[in-house]
């Protein structure tokens, strides 16, 4: 009971914090950066190892610059995520802009549903909220449930604020087959880490063999959906654009693993362009192909 009470207080605190204006939240972010980078050293060893593996061609000094920029952006991302609790429709449309939303309507005119592949890059959650205003069709946001039920419900409410339909990862294929007679848009994050017993495929990502889910490819072929990639850019603090990059509108004609390799390699190139906006503190490479042979 005490734990639940504290969690409820935490949620109330986050809600009240989200009512603060963006400019004040970024002042909090400036302080938060100092705390997590210089005082707490939050997962700095993980970040440094990930950067060293991904960019062996860069000097230690170059990687350290990326590391520092990453933590500064991570602090911004934290306060922006809190702001999403109460952010207005007007603010979302002002701060996140789709550069080619007409592509969605072109696919719908062809009778094609859309699978939009994102990465943990820039503010992917804010972009997903913005996508609600691009189409009036059913819009599904696939997510990985949190272990804490109270916080999981809390984030479901945030993701569904403007009409999006959150779908738990394990229910994705069933839901999409259920709505196969409708035109839909579904957003999936393409750089999730599979658990070891679910690994079926490794591909090259950021200079190392990386286990990836094949679910996006499987779903696209099952419902014959067009596949696009979210290319996100940070314009300035708190402002983003995203461009929908067509990968294929004929998924059934692609070779095995072709769609998977396409979206992984596009994410790779986006990260290399401005690496500080990817989540480097995540333990993405927990095992390699050699570990599965043991």
UniProtKB/TrEMBL annotation:
Chain ranges passing through the membrane: 12-40
Residue ranges that the Swiss-Prot or TrEMBL entry lists as coiled coil: none
InterPro entries named in the record: LipA_acyltrans (IPR004960)
CDD domains: LPLAT_LABLAT-like
Compartment(s) where it occurs, according to its Swiss-Prot or TrEMBL record: Cell inner membrane
Main location: membrane
Protein name from the UniProt record: Lysophospholipid acyltransferase family protein
Record keywords: Acyltransferase, Cell inner membrane, Cell membrane, Membrane, Transferase, Transmembrane, Transmembrane helix
Annotated GO MF terms: acyltransferase activity
